[in-house]
Automatic annotation (TrEMBL):
Cellular component GO terms, alphabetical: ATP-binding cassette (ABC) transporter complex; periplasmic space
Gene Ontology molecular function: peptide transmembrane transporter activity
Segments forming domain Solute-binding protein family: 81-464
Name the UniProt record assigns to this protein: 4-phytase
Biased composition (Gly residues): 12-26
Signal peptide, first to last residue: none
Length: 553
């Protein structure tokens, strides 16, 4: 789902960011100027029915609106869902199967045409198109569409989304889903004018409903956004839209980006970027740079999935031995040290609602308990250990993690062979069970962090194991876990549900299908003229970022 370790939200009770040199909330941002964004990789798709990753989702915040969206990062609860195009959150029927929304008055596309309920329905129904709807899957999973429905271009109208009038939209679900508001906040909830967007129409162009419109686009190089004159701030509760323009410069090496941000020359005083490189952190200790640092905990877990279908890892005692043997401190050092990383003992990061503090496989200084690992291996009939293959991405930091695990498990008699896979095909490879080895180092980010419903189910529901695009890398298929996922998923009280997810976290870890490793902090170094860069959970919210002095740079 978000297996590339990209960006998502945090829980309302998550850790606050440290180092707020760029100000908090609005800070002293004023209207005007151009914010510069420096990044190494290109965006996936401008079309929100196709794109679904942390990098492009940040861009979508500027271009598109949905019925419901996540609260801004400077809100009291930045993880809350709030109305966006809709007048309120959804009205749900007693049986939980019908959700009704009413659109605000005065909302328009960048053409000046009003956004109608029919446009919302049309945009959402694009998710079913087999060529276009390759992004967020929630609409297809939740809405009770006919089995043979293939989107508006191929199948026409979707009867299970009703539009009684131009401002009312009614969704009929397959089963109750108390977090449907959050599902609608995903990019696939974006409206588009009826009849538009077929084929590749939106590959290089957009129809904006947000505060900015696409002015220039050179794939792999540049995206320039300018104000959408038809956006009405009075209808938008989350986007401050301070800058007059945004300029995304793409294809810049990470080390070069860090050098530019440190130097702070010219327009780079107005620049933001992703998290700095681990190698750069040691250079940020001068008083001037430390004042600019923004450190925020991610919601993304790095872990080693253990293939429970392969002997001897099909024995829970062997998987528990692996958990005891791993030296998480050495993995932390390989990742970038304590400035950059926090060791994890549970599945759910502390920034995700439902997190419970516990340590099922403790050791002194998190260096591993070799004696306990050897005891469990002997109990499982493997006193001399065994050999296993661990898949890792062909990136230096990922290979260093693999080498740290290799050395740690070797102390318990477990011989680890590293299988290095090209980064471009890594997730496709490990997501194909027929190509999986014994273990893989990977990661997971929730699609919204107000609950664990997009964390534990996709990773551990055995009924969702697929031949391609499989996210349950452990291939765990446990009847009790599956039943508990269903029970919690039907709860309407999210506080009660989150407590239950935390307990399920503990239950799953007794089965030891993964080794939780760490949560990477995000270390930002915004330009000296940037304001509003706050990240309570690792993500920058472009909707509230602006400049202190638009005339500078």
């Amino acid at each position: 789902m978000a297996g590339v370790l990209t960006l998502t939200a945090c829980s309302g009770g998550g850790t606050s960011p440290t180092g707020s040199g760029s100000g908090t909330g609005d800070g002293n941002a004023v209207r005007g100027g151009t914010v510069q964004v420096l990044q190494s990789t290109d965006f996936s798709y401008l079309d929100p029915a196709r794109g679904w990753d942390g990098g492009v989702n940040a861009l979508y915040r500027l271009l598109y609106r949905q019925l419901v969206t996540k609260a801004p990062n400077d809100a009291e609860d930045p993880n809350a869902m709030v109305p966006d195009l809709a007048e309120s959150l959804g009205e749900v029927s007693d049986d939980g199967l019908t959700w009704t929304y009413r659109l605000k008055d005065g909302i328009t596309f960048d053409t000046g045409a009003p956004i109608t309920a029919q446009d919302v329905k049309f945009g959402i129904s694009r998710s079913w198109d087999p060529e276009i709807g390759i992004g967020s899957p929630y609409m297809k999973q939740l809405i009770d569409a006919p089995d043979d429905y293939e989107g508006p271009y191929r199948s026409g109208d979707l009867p299970t989304i009703e539009t009684p009038d131009d401002r009312t939209i009614v969704f009929h679900l397959k089963a109750p889903f108390p977090e449907f508001d959050a599902a609608l906040s995903q990019p696939s909830g974006t409206p588009f004018p009826v009849g538009t967007g077929a084929g590749d129409e939106f590959i290089n162009d957009v129809v904006s409903s947000g505060p900015y419109d696409l002015a220039e686009f050179t794939p792999g190089s540049l995206i320039q956004l300018t104000r959408n004159p038809h956006w009405d701030a009075g209808t938008d509760p989350v986007r401050k839209a301070y800058p007059d323009a945004w300029r995304f410069t793409i294809g810049v090496e990470g080390a070069t980006i860090d050098e530019r941000l440190i130097a702070g020359q010219g327009t780079d005083i107005n620049a933001i970027a992703g998290s700095v490189q681990p190698a750069t952190i040691a250079r940020l200790q001068t008083p001037q740079l430390r004042e600019r640092i923004l450190k925020a905990p991610s919601t993304c877990l790095t872990y080693m999935g253990l293939n429970t279908t392969k002997a001897p890892l099909d024995d829970v005692r062997v998987r528990q031995a692996v958990n005891y043997a791993v030296d998480k401190g050495s993995v932390l050092n390989a990742t970038g040290g304590s400035q950059f990383t926090t060791i994890s003992h549970s599945i759910l990061p502390h920034t995700v609602s439902g997190h419970t503090d516990y340590n099922p496989y403790p050791s002194e200084d998190d260096a591993g308990d070799v004696a306990e690992a050897k005891r469990l291996l002997a109990e499982a009939g493997l006193p001399d250990g065994f050999t296993m293959t661990v898949d890792v991405r062909a990136r230096d930091v990922e290979q260093r993690k693999g080498e740290a695990i290799q050395q740690a498990l070797g102390r318990a008699g477990i011989t680890v062979e590293l299988n290095v896979i090209d980064a471009a095909t890594y997730y496709e490879t490990i997501g194909t069970p027929s190509q999986q080895h014994d273990a893989a180092i990977t990661g997971w980010c929730p699609d919204w962090a107000s609950s664990a419903s997009t964390f534990l189910p996709p990773l551990f529901d055995g009924r969702d194991i697929t031949d391609k695009g499989n996210q349950n890398l452990a291939q765990l298929d446990d009847d009790a876990v599956n039943a508990e996922i269903d029970r919690i998923g039907a709860m309407t009280d999210l506080t009660e549900a989150n407590a239950a997810w935390g307990e399920l976290d503990k239950t799953i870890m007794t089965l030891a299908p993964i080794v939780p490793l760490n949560v990477d902090n995000r270390i930002y170094l915004p330009g000296t003229n940037v304001a509003g860069a706050v990240a309570p959970s690792g993500d920058l919210d472009y909707g509230i970022i602006g400049l202190k002095d638009p005339a500078k740079g």
